[in-house]
Each structure stands twice: as structure tokens, then as C-alpha cells.
Amino acid sequence: MASSWDALAEKDENELHKQRLLNVEAKPFKRITDRLSTLHGLASSRARQPPTPPPENHGDGADGTTTAPATGGAQTPPASAKPGPDMAQLKQDITLDFAAFVSNIERLQLLLTANVKQRALYTEKRGRILATELQLRESNLQLRAQLEQARAMLAQRRRFDELADQITRKPALRPRAEQATNLAKLEEEIASLEAESETYAATWRERRDQFARIMDEAMRLRRQIRDEKEENERREGMDDGDDQMDTPVGGAHADAECNQTPRPGLASGNATPRPDGGNTSAG
């Protein structure tokens, strides 16, 4: 039968109190009460009993003692007189009853002290148990989370195993050693292609630099030619102006045509001689 440590209902708690050994607990108190009632009854009966009369004197003897009258028999007490209780025995019983009462009180006090200590100990243990319970709850939560992760990982691995079985069952697959050899060859080809790509990149950079230098040189030559052309045109313009100022009005144009520097595509009488010694003619 499994024991339950839950709090009892009020009815069950009252029944438990009724089932306690109340007779054993209350026995010393009842004995003291009975003894006190007995003493009270004795005191009350003696208070109600009339005092005993003194014995009558019928004559004095020769030695002065009182002698009872000769009745032919011993004097008997009255019929209503009862023998009194033994006071020594009664005193001893009362002493024992009070000793038992005192010991019972001390026992109850010791039980109370022990109960207080036990309650304090139970409170401390309860605190430790609650702290342990909290730690265990947190540990259970962590373990439950780890269990869920482990289950998810196990399901994933099983799925991977199924996929691996489906892959490895194909007859077109090659052995692992051959695949490793092919992978090594592919890696070598990749390395050679990367080296070739680096070489092409370096060549392309060099050619691009050369083309940039050529373009710079061409632009520089173009600027130089343009500057020289502008300078020649400026000089020709200055020479034409000087000739027009020095020559008369009538023959200015003819003299200018005779003395000006020949231009490309034009023929004049005083053109620059050719290497064969002849002049350039107009026709």
C-alpha cells in the first residue's frame, strides 16, 4: 500500500485525535483527582462526625489509676462506628501519585521541546528538499531539451543513412578508390588552370600597361604636333602681316605671292628646290 503524505482533511484529523491514547495520557491526572476527592471526602466526614466523649470514671484504684467498671466483658465500640483508613498508606499513595504526575509533566515538557526541535529540523530539511527539487526541475528541463536535440539529431542521421543507402545501391557508382583518383586529377587540373589564369592575368596586366603607355605617348605626340602646327600658323600669320606693311599697294599681292613660304599643294616660282635641282612647277 502506497503511503500518502498529503495533508489530512479536517474530519480525518479529528478522528486521528480521537484515536490517540488519551486514557494513558490522562491516567495520572485522574488518579490525582481521585486522591484529592478522597481526601476531601475524609475531611468532610470528620467535620460532620461529633467529637468522641471522654471515658467515665467509676473509681480510682490504689495506685491512682482509673478503673473501668466491671461489666463482666470488654467494652465494644458502637455499631455505627467504621474503621478509619490507614493514613500512612494514604500518604504514600498520594506521594506516588504526585511523583507520577510530576514525571508525566516532565515527560510532556520534554516531548514539547523535542517536538519544537523536530519541527525546526523538519523546516530545515524541507528547505533543503525544496532547493533540491528546484535544482532537479531545472536539471530535468535541461535534460529534456538535450533529449529533444538528441532525438532530432538521431532522426537526421537516420535520414542521412537512408539517403546514403539509396545512393550506394546504384550500380553506376564507382568504387571509392577510383573516385579518390579522379578527385586528385581534378584537383591537379584545377591547380594548373588557376596557375594559367594567373599567368593570363599577369600578361593582361602587362599588355594593359603597355597600351596605356602607348596611348599616353600618342596623346603627348598629338599635343606636340598640335602645338607645332599652331606655332607655324602663328609665324606665317606674322610674316604675312609684315609683308603687307612693307610692299606698295599695287604690287603687294604679287610680291607676297612671290616671297611667301610655299604651302602643301601650292606651286610658286620660288618654291623649295628638289633634290634633283629643279623647282616645283605649277603645271
Automatic annotation (TrEMBL):
This chain belongs to which protein, by name? Tho complex subunit 7
Which residues fall in a compositionally biased region of kind Basic and acidic residues?
8-18, 224-238
| Compartment list | Nucleus
Work out whether the entry's keyword set contains NAD: no
Cite the InterPro entries for this sequence: THOC7/Mft1
Report keywords, A-Z.
Nucleus
Q: What is the top-level taxon of the source organism?
A: Eukaryota
Q: Which organism is it from?
A: Phyllachora maydis
